[in-house]
User: Fold this.
Amino acid sequence: QVQLVESGGGLVQPGGSLILSCAASGSIFSINAMGWHRQAPGKERELVAAIISGGSTNYADSVKGRFTISRNNTKNTMYLQMNSLKPEDTAVYYCNADGRLRFGVMSRGPTFNSWGQGTQVTVSS
Assistant:
């Protein structure tokens, strides 16, 4: 009922930059928190950055000062600006969002928690 689509991944050299985007669509009444998670081969999925509707943000220590998360509440879209990329940033990056579904024309429905399919980010020379 809520679809998340990531884009913007790819291959970049160490020290380079990428911007990831996540677009949410479907029967959305409101989105509370959105976040980026990543999973490297052989490792558990980890939270990279999160942002709530009011704009407060949270970052993993490993990306503080290098990554910036932002969102456009009108477009239900989230971004991750990644600078000074390192080989250890290589992973599949997943978008996550939670909020309320839209019921009927514009009534608040039940909660949702959705994940995107992921986008590959590879940092290598």
Summary: The mean pLDDT is 96.
